Amino acid sequence: MRIVSIVGARPEFVQVAVLSRELRRRHHEILIHTGQHYDDRMSDRFFQELDLPQPEFNLGIAPQSASGQTGDMIKALAETIAPLDADLVMVRGDTNSTLAGAIVAKQLLLPLAHIEAGMRSYDRTMPEEINRVVADHIADIQLVTDEAARDRLASEGVVANVHVCGDVMYDIFLRARGGANEALSETLRAATRDPYVLLTLHRAENTDDAKRLRAIVDGFARSPRRVIFPVHPRTAARLEAFGITLPACVLATEPLGYLEMVALECGAAAIFTDSGGVQREAYFAGVPCVTLRDSTEWTNTVDAGWNRLAGAHTATIAALVAAPPQGAATHPPLFGDGNAAAHIADALEIPETLALVAAARTTRNDRDYAASGR
What we know:
Blueprint: E1 2-7, H1 10-26, E2 28-33, H2 44-49, E3 57-58, H3 66-81, E4 88-92, H4 96-107, E5 112-115, H5 127-138, E6 141-144, H6 147-155, E7 162-164, H7 168-176, H8 186-191, E8 196-199, H9 204-207, H10 210-218, E9 226-230, H11 233-242, E10 250-253, H12 258-267, E11 271-273, H13 276-285, E12 289-291, H14 299-303, E13 307-309, H15 314-322, H16 340-347, H17 351-372
Parallel strand pairs: 1-2, 1-4, 2-3, 4-5, 5-6, 6-7, 8-9, 8-11, 9-10, 11-12, 12-13
Helix pairs in contact: 1-7, 1-16, 3-4, 4-5, 7-13
């Protein structure tokens, strides 16, 4: 089977590390990088560090508004995918790349598989929520992390071709954590000798709102322990533009590679983040997480007692920095058995999926024949 895989952001790059290896063992995968994370520190480094296959196509879509970026992606993806004679398009998560890839697949009459289907924050003010809902409702194959995601899809009337596979990010985390400390620089090794908390912050809802960004930063002002803060390029630009100075307790670093992040996550007293991927990695590491958002799609980690919402409330953040939350007494296996990549590949090979692919190819052939006027 010829599978077009679309990636564009950090969690999607991480997935490629194990999923592409499995897909390429069984099928012909064509990897397309939209360029959504355009900065070398946020993109190329992941491909190098995790020994990922180089994309067959890098579209290099320039950063701009979400609508502008998505529109440019749709045009570029359509022009790239149309001549590839693909059998299936695979998208992941809830990024602009996910939405653009999903729309193009259906416009080209190609079956669409959505990894991490069924996630919901039920906050329609989040662009990511719109992206994931649209992708779910036009996808032909839903690849979900757990039974709760399957139930959410069922509540919306999506019941066909839904497969519980686990989380590919858990697969790679298990493989990476053993040697992750070796990736730390001397500066970070020194910074982690004493207790610390880890902070990541990049979502537009936090970084593009000066009042909200300042309130979050103020929450760390009196931290009794070091705050290690790998600064996303967008966040760095907004901090400068808004004239916000980081407290002395915050160690700001350049964006870090995957292995460095895994090492810091595993050693932290707590993780403060607005990233969906880092919320999951906190759970994988067994480290309490504080989500700097008003809602989260990873409600299973909240229900399990390992994640709590703090929004952008300075007092709440400050209290949780001063006394980091403890995880629950139990740590249930929410994200599968560490073999999600194999389960996803299996789901693409069942008779129902193969019949779907064959039917879609017949439809495309009939359309092309009619268009030829023969």
